[in-house]
Amino acid sequence: MRSDEIKKIMKKYKREFEILENYDKNRELSFQRKRIDVTLSIATINKLRELKQRTEKPISRIIEEKFS
What is the tens place of the pLDDT at every residue in 11-57? Predict the structure, then answer.
């Protein structure tokens, strides 16, 4: 393979190569999900439930979108 072909492939699939490089370092993929336990106030939980009903999205997805 020629150098220019390699550069073209690297440019086209840059994000995929970065994901694989990160996996090699951390053994985690950026799109993986993990379960965690958090303590929230009753008011916050009620607000999240209200948002869940309005948006028809799971609470975890609502929280992820706020931090993305």
Answer: 999 999 999 999 999 988 877 888 899 999 999 999 999 999 999 99
pTM score, whole prediction: 0.57
Tens of pLDDT, residues 33-44? 888 999 999 999
Task: Output the CA torsion 47→51→54→57 (10° steps).
Answer: -150
Q: For residue 63, what is the DSSP state?
A: H
CA separation (Å) from 52 to 26, 34, 48, 61, 67? 33, 20, 6, 9, 16
Cβ atoms of residues 52 and 62 within 8 Å: yes
